[in-house]
Amino acid sequence: MTDAFRFPAEWEPQSAVLIAWPHADTDWSERLAGVEETYVALVAAITRFEPVIICIADEDLQVYAEARLRSARIDMARVRFVPAEYDDTWLRDTGPITLRADDRFKQLDFRFTGWGGKYQASRDDRLVGELSGMNLFHNYFVQSIDFALEGGAIETDGRGTLLSTWQCLHERHPDVPREEITARLSEWLRQDRVLWLDHGYLEGDDTDAHIDTLARFAPGDGIVFQACDDPTDSHYPELMAMADEIAALRTRDGQPYRLFPLPWAKPVIDEGRRLAASYANYLIINGAVLIPAYGDQADAKAAEVLAAAYPGREIVQVPCRPLIWQNGSLHCITMQLPEGLVG
User: Fold this and answer.
1) How do the domains of the chain map onto residue ranges?
2) pTM above 0.90, yes or no
């Protein structure tokens, strides 16, 4: 390693969570009312435990959002709005990836290409730079990296092990061999191990198999993953193969990981299209884990699994069925910020 910076795990102490408020000029326009309800519920859940920073497109939208949040009796002392331009609200993929070295911070600004050129993303690609000019963060600098990478594509245990899916990185960089991508990620993200999954996908996912929809690290060498127990479901062969891959992974001490399979929700069909209802797309915050709820009987079982994987944290369900209409869920619309980065 060339410096003392490291990539903290999501369960380490945080100073705030960063989100962007949806509006009529984003892809949410057709179903804005429903998704706003999810955002209100999300902000209510986060502010019980820590502050939230909300990117807002203009002053009129801020007035409107403030009114929505106040009507829900949210603690506005824990809410901060910052003006920003954005194409959409998937902050996991467009927000800063933050490394830390004691009380110093480095934010990595990778290229955001709209998940491989699928969507317009020029404003989203500028978001990290825009935030850096707001006197929002402390004792940090931004490193711009000319390499397409989204935050939802990577998962760290905070101790130097990265987990990702080869499908996603290969789709972004088809001419770059695995060994080279491994080396680059290891250097930029200060990791000494990269574990690749070659299986796993969700219908309705347009990210090319982001890891945060499939498998996540948990403290004490745990891995939480989206399982499928229905042999008649189209996902069954691929998710079973992924489960076998995860079972074969080893910790840096050569031991199997402790495994926490998540239940499988019934198919959510919207206008003939199946949506990606993954329970793996949860958010860890100070003292709690926020889990997507889809109005399915499996919601309660998923909460039980996360309670076992993250003992001592409150498990809070957030209604996310409106989100999956746009192919993402709870983790996708958020980005945690390490403790000390925000004053």
Assistant:
1) 14-338
2) yes
The residue to which tokens 């930029």 are assigned: 188
Task: Tokens for 312, please give them.
Answer: 């001592």
**pLDDT tens digits, one per residue of 71-97:** 999 999 999 999 999 999 999 999 999
User: Measured between alpha carbons, how far is 336 from 342 in angstroms, rounded to an integer?
Assistant: 11
Rounded to the nearest angstrom, the gap between the alpha carbon of residue 47 and the centroid of all alpha carbons in its chain is 18
Largest CA distance in the chain: 55
Q: Phi/psi of residue 314, each to 5°?
A: -75, 135
Each residue of 132-179: pLDDT tens digit?
989 899 999 999 999 999 999 999 999 999 999 999 999 999 999 999
Q: What is the CB neighbour count within 10 angstroms for residue 30? A: 10
Q: At a CB cut-off of 8 Å and minimum separation 6, what does 108 contact? A: 96, 97, 98, 99, 142, 143, 145, 188, 189
Question: What token pair was written down for 143?
Answer: 């490193």
Task: Fill in the amino acid letter for 167.
Answer: Q
Give the closest residue to 329 by CA, choosing from 272, 286, 283: 283
Which portions of the chain are predicted below pLDDT 70?
A: 1-2
The hierarchical CATH code for the domain 14-338 is: 3.75.10.10
Residue-wise over 18-29: b if at least 16 C-beta within 10 A, else e? bbbbbbeebbbe
Distance between CA atoms of residues 216 and 342, nearest Å: 25
